[in-house]
Amino acid sequence: MTSEDNALETAAAALREAQAAVHVARQQLTAAVVAAYQAGEPAARIAERTGTSVIEIRNLLAATGTSRFPR
User: Fewer CB atoms near the end CB (10 Å): N or C, the chain?
Assistant: First the structure.
């Protein structure tokens, strides 16, 4: 195996690790957004704080079935 081959495997492994880290970060962000919303923070303020749009926040909340007040 040449060093070029090793570089390919190394890059692929690094990509898999990065994808796993992004998945975890998305889960953490979702949990934080849901908690903030249920605590009464407006979707517009959450969007501002996270650097996303209100539509993205509302879509996330809808996808998780989140209401303003937990059951």
Answer: C
Q: Indicate whether 56 belongs to any domain.
A: yes
27 pLDDT more than 60: yes
- Is the confidence at residue 71, as pLDDT, over 90? no
Structural domain total, the chain: 1
- Cβ neighbours for 37, distance < 8 A, ≥ 6 positions apart: 43, 46, 57, 61, 66, 68
Within 1-71, where are the H helices? 3-38, 43-50, 54-63
The residue range of the domain holding 9 is 3-63
CB atoms under 10 Å from CB of 44, counted, come to 12
